[in-house]
Amino acid sequence: MSLLSVSVYQIHSRGFGRPEAIVKDTCPRCGFAGEMGPRYIIPSQVKNRQGETQNVWDYKNSKELYENLKEFLKHLYFRHITMKSQDRRVVVCESLLCPTVFRETLAKVLFQYFEVPSVYFVPSHLTPLYTLGIGCGLVMDVGYKEASVIPIYEWTPVLKGLQILPLAGKAIHQNLRVLLENSNNEAGDDKAAAVKRPPVDDLTEEVLEDIKVRCCFVTNINRAKQILAVYCGKEDSSKLPPSPPDVEYPFNGDSFLRISGRVREEACEILFEQDNEEMSLSTMILDSLIKCPIDTRRELAENLIITGGTCQLPGFYSRLQKELYDQLSKPRYSEKLKIQAFKFHQPPCIENYTAWLGGAIAGAMITLPGRSVSRESFMETNTLPDWCKLLEKTE
Questions:
Q1: What's the pTM?
Q2: Are 344 and 306 in contact (CB under 8 A)?
C-alpha cells in the first residue's frame, strides 16, 4: 500500500523551522513515502469565513483549530496530492514540543473527517537518523524561529539533554535589520548621486531573508574574535581586519541597496555570540552532552547531525566545528567533557528537508503498522497515545 508522508509538525507556533531560500517554517513538506524528496512545500495558511487569509495556528479554541486543519488538509489532499485519503496511511513528523491540543485535533481531522487508515506520529529529531541508518546521534535543528538540540540514543530521544534557544533565521533577520539601519548603506535610483537610507517598512521578512541568502555568510572564528575585540575596546580600530567586498542588492524594483562587507559577515554572528548566560549554538551542543550519560557522550559527539535551512549558510559547518573545539578548551567544559573529536554526518539530501526524508523512509518500512495508530483504535478510545508510550501492535 502506498503511503503519504507529511511533515506537518512545522505548522504549529512552537514548531522548529526549516527554511530554504524563501520558504520559512510555516511551510510543511508533503509527498509520498519512498520518494527522495517532498513533492510540495505549502504555506500553512487558510481562508477564514470572511475570506481573509490566516495562519493555521491562529485559533482561539480547539473548534476553530479543527476547522483550520480541515481546510488546510483539504487543500493538500485535493489540490496538490490529488488522491483519495482513505487509501493511504499517513506519517506525521512532529515536534517534541507540539502542543497536545494541536496533536489531538490533527488526529481527529485525519481519522474522523478524512478517514485515513492509520497515522504514525514520529518525532522530527528522530527521523534524520533514518536517512543515515544509525541509531545514535546528536541532532541539532537550526531553522527559522528556534535552534534545538536533542540526543538520540538507541533510537530513543533523551529528553534530559534537550536544549532550545531562539538562535536561528529569525534572529539573523533581526540583527541584519539593525545593521542595515545603523550602517551607511544607502539606496538610490540607478546609482544616482541622490541617496537615502532604506525605509524600515520596506525591510520585510521576505526581503531580509533574500538578502541573507544572497549576500551573507558565516565568517571564520579568527576574524570574529578580532572584530569582537575591536568593538569591545580591547584592540585598536586599526587592527580591524579588512572587510569583504560590498555588494549591491536590487531594491524596490528601480533602486539598489548597497550592503557593506562588514554587514555581510556580521549578520550571522548572532548565532555564535554568547548572551548573558554564555549560551550560543556551540554551547547548546556541549551542554546537551553534559546532561547525557557519561558512557554515551563520545559516541554522540562523533555522530552530529545538523538540519534546518539556516545551516546551509556558507561557512556554517566550519565555524560551528571551530567554536566547539574553542569552547571545549575552556575550564567550563574541559573539566566535564573528555571528548577528543567532533564529527558531522552529511545526510543524503538538503538539510531543510532531512526530517521529511526520514519520515518518508519510516513510512516505507514494514514495521509501520506496529508503530501506527489505527483508525479503529482511535475511534474506540478517542485518545492519542504519546510518542514515547509503547503502542500495542495494530493491524
A1: 0.85
A2: yes
Contact 44, 72 (CB under 8 A): yes
Q: Which long-range contacts (CB under 8 A, 24 or more apart) does 200-204 make?
A: 202/251, 202/252, 203/177
Distance CA 33, CA 364 (A): 6
> CA 63 to CA 48: how far, in whole Å?
13
Q: How far is the C-alpha of 161 from the C-alpha of 63, rounded, in Å?
A: 35
Q: What single-letter DSSP state applies at residue 9?
A: G
Fill in the DSSP letter of residue 391.
P
Rounded distance between C-alpha atoms, residue 101 and residue 7, angstroms:
18
Distance CA 69, CA 8 (A): 10
pLDDT digit string, tens, across residues 152-184? 999 999 999 999 999 999 999 999 999 998 875
Quick: pLDDT tens for 185-207: 444 444 443 344 556 567 888 89
d(CA 241, CA 233) in angstroms, rounded, equals: 15
User: How many residues make up the chain in this entry?
Assistant: 395
**String of DSSP letters for 234-290:** SS-GGGSPPPPPPEEEEETTTEEEEE-HHHHHHGGGGGTS--TT---HHHHHHHHHH
The phi and psi torsions of 257 (rounded to 5 degrees) equal -125, 120
Give CA–CA dist 347/364, Å, rounded. Answer: 18
Tell me the three state secondary structure of residue 193.
coil
